[in-house]
Amino acid sequence: MPLQMNISLVIPLLNEEESLQELHQWISKVMTSHDFSYEIIFIDDGSTDNSWNLIEKLTSQDSAVKALKFAANFGKSQALNAGFKKAQGEVVITMDADLQDSPDEIPSLYEMIVKDGYDLVSGWKKKRYDSKIRKNIPSKLFNWAARKTSGISLNDFNCGLKAYRLKVVKNINVRGEMHRYIPVLAKNAGFTNIGEKIVKHQARKYGLTKFGMERFVNGFLDLITIWFVSKFGKRPMHLFGLLGTCMFAIGFLAAFSIGLLKLLSLHYYHRPAPLVTDSPLFYISLTTMILGTQLFLAGFIGELILRSKNNSPNYTVLEEL
Ligand code: UDP
Ligand code: MG
Fold it and tell me: pTM surpassing 0.70?
């Protein structure tokens, strides 16, 4: 069997022409001084500047450099996904292209996967060089919510610098904008040995951040989605059926008591009970029974969708003999 390559670097980029050459030099220096066999996979996520020309030049100078060019800006998640498909190294390391992440961290991240047995190691920008109001404070809140919903104790879910065992990246599918939650995807796929390493962070040297303020709104909505999908995605009826049953039961009890009141008041007071529409119970039973049925239907439809479109497996195979 040929020796497996040590490291695949996956680097998504959007308009980072100023950084690419410097980044490539720095990576090459670190890799050769540690004698790693490696590949660098650049994914050009629809850059409109000179980035792709520079990458072409790098590929002609250095056979370790490989690259994909997207036809348009499909987003960092898609770029990572494409890089993961291509990666071959025993350890896959993702890194931003803007020089905010330091290639000097690569050797120790590699060690943590290979020697310490982690499935995934996430960088932690403990001392962070970004704007306080626009990034640091919202990101604290965001990480707190992600910790609570996922049960993974990371301080910095969205750090671009992460290392993975090859098996992990081959078994997760980074959809939408889920690059913020890759540790959660990994955990859901069964890779629970997740570690963290404090990494050096630098201020952005060139250009501007490629994500606007909408990142926070989208980030939180994605968090709700991922929580829901990981908990009930494979069994929607368990959630909607339960809620629907509770709702319906409340409605049924309310309707039952209306009927009971009618009978009792005739029997004991010998006069007809007030009109059912005068009783609040009537409205309660009306709404809850309708809501209950709707929730049930949502559950059924969810199950139908799952059954008709079940092309992604529900399991991860760890080993095969
Ligand atoms: N990026 C990308 N596609 C996008 C947005 C960003 O490939 O649609 C890349 C970007 O070029 C950089 C990395 O993702 O290499 C992180 O982006 P950025 O530095 O703008 O994020 P920040 O550091 O501000 O969180
Ligand atoms: Mg950056």
Answer: yes
